[in-house]
Each structure stands twice: as C-alpha cells, then as structure tokens.
From TrEMBL, chain A:
Listed name of the protein: Teichoic acid D-alanyltransferase
Keyword Signal attributed: no
Pathway annotation: Cell wall biogenesis; lipoteichoic acid biosynthesis
Gene: dltB
Natural source organism: Lactococcus lactis subsp. lactis (strain IL1403)
GO biological process, one term: lipoteichoic acid biosynthetic process
InterPro entries: Ac/AlaTfrase_AlgI/DltB, DltB, MB_O-acyltransferase, MBOAT_fam
Length: 407, 79
C-alpha cells in the first residue's frame, strides 16, 4: 500500500493517530506507540514485497557503518580523511547500485534487489550524519534514536529530508501543550492543503491537461504542444509533490514533530538563486550544506584556485550535476542538473556584469514581475527536460512503437 | 578579538558598511553571500584555531557582525 495514496490509507492513518494526539494533548509522547505505529505502517507499505528485506538489510548495513564511524571518530578520536571517504562511499553504495542497475538491465523489469521505496531519501540522512560526526557536530549516535530517525514513517517515501540533531532535539524535548496545540492546528490544515494540492488540483491538471497533452506532444510535436506540455507538467509536478510534502509534514506535526518545509511559493522566485531557496528546500539545502559548501571550502583551504568565480562555478556544476545523477542515470536527469548549474553560473555572471557596468536597475512592481516571469520560464524549461517528454518525443521519432508517456 | 573579527569580515566582504550597524543583516544587505561566507569561515578558522563546519552555520545565528563575533567567542570557549 503506497503511502498517502488512497482514502482507505488516510482513514487508517487518522484512526491510528488519535491516541498520539490525545496523549500529546495530555503532555505525553507515547514513544512506544509511535514506534509501534511506525512498524505497523512500514509493514503495511512493504509487506508482501521482496523490498521489505532490502529495507531491513539497508538499515542493518547503515547502522553498522554509522556506529563504526562513531566509534572510530569519537571513541578512538581519530580523523583520517581516507576513513571518512571510505565510510561515505560505503554509505552511498546501495543507492549507487540501485541507480546504476537499470543501465545494465534496461526495460520495465524489477529494479535492483537492493532498492526499496525511499532509499534515495534515507541515504541523505545517513550521509549527513557521517559528515556531522566527522565535523564533531554529532558526538553520539544512540541506537534507538538513530533507527527511529532513519525509519520515521511519515517521511519515508519522499522526504522532507530531516537532520539528525534537529530530530533528536525534538524527540528529547518535553511536550509543551500550547506548542502542540499550535502544531496540531497547523498539521490538520496542512493535511487538508495537501488534499487540495495533490488530489484535487494535481489530479485535475493531470486528468484534463497533462495526460493528453504529453501524448499529443510525443506523437505530433509542435511548439504549441510542447510548450503546453511543459506548463502542464511543471504545474502538475509542483502540486503533486508539494501536496505529498504537506501530508508528510502535517502527519509529522500531528505526532508532535515540526518538520522543515519543502516549498515556499517557488513560482514567485525573482531569480534562480531565490528559486532554490523556495523549491524542494530540504533537498536544496542538503546539497548546499553537504556538497556545495564543503567542496568550496576544500577548494579554498587547499588553494586549488585563487579565482573565486572559478571556484563557485565548479561548485555549482558539481552540486547540480550530482543532484541530476541522484534523480537517476538518464540523459535528461543529468541534463537537468547541468542546465541548473548553467542557470546559477549565468545568474552570477549577470550580477557581476551589472556591478561592473554600474547598471542601476530600479526595483519596482514591473521589474519584479519581469524577473519572476523570466525565472518562471527558465525553470519550467528545466521541468520539461526533467519530465522525460523530450525523451519520449525523440524515441517516438526513432521507433513509433516506443511506449507513450503515461502521466 | 572583536576588532580582529570585524577586520576579517571587512577583508572578505570588501566593505566596512557593517561597522555603522553591527546588527545589520549581512546576507540581506548583500555584504555576505554563500561564497564569502565560506571565505569568512576559512579565515576565522585560521585566525582563531577553531573548527566551523558549514552545516552548523545556521544563517539565523551568523547573519550579523555581532552574532559572528559571539559565535567565534563561543567556539573559542568550547576549546
């Protein structure tokens, strides 16, 4: 049973959450019940599938790695770089295997035996922890908290990507009734908002626009068809994913957790920089903190270049390409990453140009509207690439029997 | 120590505007951005022999000259 997919699921979830809500209102966390709930829902989602073993195996594997590194870094107080890199590589190995698998086994068959719903997202959690152990920010990894963090049910399929220290702080804090009432309020609202986004708006966009236009654009590509499919897909992507995120956050809120948000009016972004502070924020900030900033800091410390522009451009490329690869090893995911890197590099260059020429562009409603319009369209072009529709168009030209898109 | 920290901020950002108001938001005013923030981290780490991991740099705690000075002092005291 896919999370958040059927009314039945929500009914069961709602009923199951009632004891936790009551307990929190009475000032108690009911941790044993939370753990039971997590196990029960994981069971509902994964049982009867082979992937349940992948899920469990993955947890065991990551626990061994993280606990080893904790022992090495904290107990032994050693900090050799090569151990750090090795542990990071081991931690991402299952994910890499799962992503590379389709290259060797193309076609609609089952994916790698290591894969399970959420593997891409859980991997972020362990990698971040290893880095923070290295940095000395995490000085202890208590096993129970670690496992609950890893398998936290509301966010297991697609995030938002939480961070260990934040989660544990919340786990340990006592229940404060006013705070919980506020969280409960917001959580319920967000669940309803999620319904609106995913099951009404997203559904309607797909049913009456995206599904049909994607097929038309594939069979009879034209500027109009393709543009229309671009807007349809981008809007669908937002409402669907933002809707899911709202469910995940809302349910977590009901359980007493104030999870970080994923979207903040992304289509009002005035430039690509602003966009990445509004779109899939937990992913964007994860890459910023654990890839971009670390890489740039390494460049500067090791003095691989004196040129700040070169360093930041290489940083953007590495960051965005990695993000592209993380989505999957297809040409269009990689191009998506590369395109966003170019947007970031281009935007920085534009800022430098304005400064050099001393162009003072006024900041008013009109200029804001134009910047938003430009950013919106540049971003939607990236969504078109990401959607795979161009891939369908090309493949259909080569082989008319290639399967049509089925959004 | 505060003066040394402010000198470093000035070198990294290329401006001393922030000295007029040590509580102005350096990121909002464009005095600091992600790149300069990292340069700042590298310089501060070197100058005070402390460790400043990027993922710890919560912008809310690091966005004014005064806050930066306070954070560095805390780190120094930790060691």
């Amino acid at each position: 049973m896919q999370p958040y997919s059927t009314p039945f699921y929500f009914v069961i979830l709602g009923l199951a959450l009632i004891p936790i809500v009551i307990a929190q209102l009475l000032g108690k966390k009911l941790m044993w019940y939370q753990v039971l709930l997590t196990i029960a829902f994981l069971w509902l989602t994964f049982s009867g599938t082979v992937t349940i073993w992948a899920l469990i195996g993955f947890g065991v594997f990551q626990t061994i790695i993280v606990k080893f590194y904790e022992w090495y870094r904290v107990k032994q107080n050693k900090n050799q770089s090569f151990v750090f890199y090795l542990i990071i590589l081991l931690s991402i190995l299952p994910l890499v295997i799962v992503k590379v698998h389709p290259l060797f086994n193309p076609g609609p068959g089952p994916g790698s035996i290591l894969g399970f719903l959420g593997i891409s997202y859980i991997s972020f959690k362990t990698v971040a922890m290893i880095m923070e152990i290295r940095d000395g920010l995490i000085k202890a990894v208590p096993l129970k908290e670690f496992l609950y963090f890893l398998y936290f049910y509301p966010t297991i399929s697609s995030g938002p990507i939480d961070r260990f220290r934040r989660f544990v702080k919340e786990l340990k804090a006592p229940v404060v009734t006013e705070k919980y009432l506020d969280l409960l309020n917001k959580g319920v609202f967000r669940i309803f908002q999620g319904f609106l986004y995913k099951f009404i708006i997203g559904y309607l966009i797909d049913q009456y626009w995206l599904h049909g236009i994607a097929i038309s654009a594939t069979i009879h590509p034209s500027f109009l068809n393709v543009s229309s499919s671009m807007y349809a897909y981008g809007l669908y992507l937002f409402f669907d994913f933002a809707g899911y995120s709202l469910f995940a956050i809302g349910v977590s809120n009901l359980m007493g957790y104030d999870l970080p948000h994923n979207f903040n009016k992304p289509f009002l972004a005035k430039n690509i920089h602003d966009f990445w502070q509004r779109w899939h924020m937990t992913l964007s900030f994860w890459f910023r903190d654990f890839v971009f900033m670390r890489l740039v800091k390494t460049f500067m410390v090791k003095k691989w270049s004196k040129n700040m522009i070169t360093i930041s451009n290489v940083g953007y490329l590495a960051n965005m390409l990695l993000m592209g690869f993380w989505h999957g090893l297809t040409w269009y995911y990689i191009l998506y990453g590369f395109y966003h890197a170019m947007l970031m590099i281009g935007y920085d260059a534009w800022k430098r140009l304005k400064k050099r020429k001393n162009w003072k562009i006024p900041d008013n409603k009109w200029t804001s509207a134009i910047s938003i319009f430009i950013t919106f369209n540049l971003v939607f072009i990236s969504f078109l690439i990401f959607s795979g529709i161009p891939n369908h168009i090309i493949m259909h030209c080569i082989d008319p029997h290639f399967p049509l898109p089925n959004f | 120590m505060k003066e040394q920290i402010f000198d470093i901020i000035e070198t990294v950002s290329g401006t001393d505007e922030f000295r007029e108001d040590l509580d102005m938001d350096l990121f909002e005013e464009g005095i600091l951005d992600s790149m300069r923030a990292i340069m700042l981290i590298v310089e501060l780490e070197g100058a005070f022999d402390i460790s400043l991991p990027p993922s710890e740099m919560d912008r809310e705690d690091w966005n004014t000259a005064n806050k930066i000075a306070a954070r560095v002092q805390e780190k120094k005291d930790e060691n």
